[in-house]
């Protein structure tokens, strides 16, 4: 057990078991984070909608506690600065999300993800149904800016790959409120409605079973080390028995 070979094997087992244990706790913490998120979402969905300026007073940012707040806002859609989010899918079908700024009475605007429409998966900006004209009152969910950066959130030829008010800020002639809104309904209704964003999945996900899996691998590494050590120790205690078995096997193959 004190030989270089076995000490090296022990070091490998300790590192492997430690990594697997850490990954198990990482998955468990992800489960806790998801359950906390589910509680926040359920609380927001059970509450009445609030006016956008009340949900984000003094230019506050949308964070983990305010995201998914049900909000209302009234303004006029700015179709000139409308963009589409390319390469999105629903149930395996290609399409785009349509994001249109809604200019508020204050002169600021909020980005509104009006919904999804199936299109060909191409780099060309597709034609999409127009929003209602004039004053429109919307209701939807607050969402955080997408964490992507660079060209992913900056419009190019009227398209983006992720929604972010920060990325759109230099492309519009007014200030944007932080985050954006997933539209659920609007008055007046559009001539052609888009598919609204579905409610988020509130299940636990696979994190708990992944944690158990990693912890099992850690236990397997430790048990395997002692199993191999016991097997070699047993072999060393009775080498003559093994040698005798080999001699008998060799004699059986020799011709008489």
The total count of strands amounts to 8
Query: How many structural domains are formed by the residues?
Result: 2
Structural class: alpha/beta
* Largest sheet properties: 5 strands, mixed, barrel
Overall 3D form: elongated
Q: Quickly count the helices.
A: 5
Question: Taking all residues together, what is the mean pLDDT?
Answer: 88
Radius of gyration using CA atoms only: 30 Å
- Helix fraction bin: 25-40%
In the predicted model, the low-confidence regions spanning at least 5 consecutive residues are none
Terminal CA distance: 44 Å
Order of helices and strands: HEHEEEEEEHEHH
Summarize this structure briefly:
With 256 residues, this protein is of the alpha/beta class. It contains 5 helices and 8 strands; from the N terminus they run H-E-H-E-E-E-E-E-E-H-E-H-H. The protein folds into 2 domains: 4-35 and 205-247; 69-187, no CATH class.
């Amino acid at each position: 057990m004190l030989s270089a070979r076995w000490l090296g094997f022990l070091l490998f087992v300790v590192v492997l078991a430690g990594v697997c244990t850490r990954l198990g706790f990482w998955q468990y913490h992800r489960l806790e984070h998801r359950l906390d998120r589910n509680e926040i979402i359920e609380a927001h969905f059970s509450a009445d909608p609030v006016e956008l300026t009340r949900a984000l007073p003094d230019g506050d940012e949308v964070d983990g506690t305010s995201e998914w707040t049900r909000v209302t806002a009234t303004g006029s859609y700015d179709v000139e600065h409308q963009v589409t989010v390319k390469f999105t899918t629903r149930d395996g079908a290609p399409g785009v999300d349509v994001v249109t700024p809604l200019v508020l009475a204050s002169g600021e605007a909020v980005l509104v993800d009006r919904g999804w429409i199936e299109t060909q998966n191409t780099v060309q900006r597709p034609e999409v149904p127009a929003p209602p004209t004039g004053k429109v009152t919307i209701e939807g969910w607050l969402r955080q800016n997408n964490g992507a950066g660079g060209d992913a959130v900056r419009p190019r030829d009227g398209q983006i790959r992720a929604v972010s008010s920060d990325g759109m800020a230099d492309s519009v002639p007014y200030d944007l409120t932080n985050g954006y809104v997933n539209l659920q309904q609007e008055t007046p209704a559009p001539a052609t409605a888009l598919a609204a964003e579905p409610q988020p999945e509130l299940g636990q996900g696979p994190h708990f079973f992944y944690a158990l899996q990693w912890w099992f691998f850690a236990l397997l590494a430790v048990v395997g080390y002692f199993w191999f050590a016991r097997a070699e120790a047993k072999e060393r205690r009775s080498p003559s028995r093994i040698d005798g078995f080999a001699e008998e096997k060799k004699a059986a193959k020799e011709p008489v």
